[in-house]
Design goal:
Blueprint (H helix, E strand, L loop, with lengths): L1 E2 L16 E3 L11 E5 L7 H17 L2 E8 L2 H5 L12 H9 L5 E6 L2 H4 L3 H13 L1 E6 L13 H11 L2 E4 L3 E3 L2 E2 L2 H9 L3 H8 L3 E8 L4 H4 L5 E4 L11 E9 L2 E10 L10 E6 L10 E11 L7 H18 L4
Length: 328
């Protein structure tokens, strides 16, 4: 198994052109030499990044184009519709953004339906990998399964690949801090508020994207105005309640900030909310898209005896957040 310190990223340039996003097999372009991988890629974490690195390197070596196949909605929502415990690390738009940063040539988003779930592994190979994409080289992650009842495996692909004229490579499991990297372990870290650990596993900060909505505007009355964030993706995982140091992105502007997730007990909040105080920023941004990158958790949410005590704590929070963000 590879430790994080042993992952050596290629000197091959990431970007040859902007990633093309295809939302169905109709109209997918003819590719002479397709180097392909597939999966849900929830989080696009460091183990995923190793797969994508290999994809780029093989494409460079064989003068091919990289193709990533993913699915929308997440397969579990179709296969287990009564399971309401699914939480995702990315919305589809966030996933597209992360994959575009990995220098991928083509992203094929296949609609995951009940009918699609019934495709056998052989049908998937024949009808998608070969007829639609023309796969020449397939790169898959550790223990990857596909097709009806997850019947397809690395062994199965090795056996059938030569008959269809494609090669295959399996990427071994990745370790960080002696812990296997997986989307499940990243979710556990976030549910515990350990956003720094999640970032190590992800290889990038955890991101929430939403829309700025009207709130009660009580923060403005005590000198700490906040933007209330509505996250439209119902399956998006929201980290544990508490106060966090974050980077905030609005259009082309990036600012540091401190973000609270919780019920605002000191001012009798009504339900769980996500609010961010953006440093050195006073523009009106209602209805605009906003993204926050979590850097570190500062403290748990707590109830203060009065607003003066809350204001004192918020000043301390700001100083800690600026230190965590390395803002002078």
């Amino acid at each position: 198994m590879l430790g994080l310190g042993l992952v050596v990223y290629s000197a091959i340039p990431y970007f040859r052109a902007s990633m093309q996003v295809h939302r169905s097999i109709e109209g997918f372009p003819k590719i002479q030499n397709a180097i392909v991988t597939q999966g849900t890629f929830d989080g696009v974490h460091v183990a995923h990044q190793v797969i994508l690195q290999q994809l780029r390197e093989i494409a460079h070596e064989k003068n091919g184009e990289t193709v990533v196949i993913t699915y929308d909605p997440h397969p579990r929502t179709i296969l287990f519709p009564d399971d309401h415990g699914l939480e995702l690390l990315n919305s589809l738009d966030e996933k597209i953004e992360l994959l575009s940063k990995e220098g991928i040539d083509h992203l094929l988003i296949l609609p995951f339906t009940t009918a699609f779930s019934r495709l056998s592994s052989l049908e998937f190979i024949r009808d998608i990998l070969m007829k639609v994409i023309g796969t020449k080289y397939l790169v898959i992650g550790y223990n990857h399964r596909f097709g009806k009842n997850r019947e397809g495996s690395f062994t199965h692909l090795k056996e059938i690949g030569p008959a269809y004229g494609f090669e295959i490579k399996e990427i071994l499991e990745q370790d960080i801090d002696q812990v296997s990297v997986s989307s499940t372990r990243i979710r556990e870290a976030l549910r515990n508020g350990n956003v720094a650990k999640a970032a190590r596993f992800l290889g990038h900060p955890y991101v929430l994207t939403g829309t700025v909505i009207h709130g009660r505007e009580l923060g403005r009355t005590i000198g700490y105005p906040t933007a209330n964030i509505f996250v439209s993706s119902p399956l998006k995982l929201i980290p544990a309640d508490g106060v966090y140091a974050v980077w905030v992105k609005i259009a082309s502007i990036t600012r540091g900030g401190m973000l609270n997730i919780g019920n605002n007990p000191t001012i009798e909040g009504k339900g769980r909310s996500i609010e961010v105080n953006i440093f050195d920023f006073s523009e009106m941004i209602y209805n605009q898209s906003i993204s926050v990158e979590f850097v570190d958790k500062l403290r748990n949410e707590e109830k203060f005896i009065n607003l003066d005590a809350l204001k004192t704590q918020l000043l301390n929070d700001k100083l800690q957040a600026m230190e965590a963000l390395k803002i002078p």
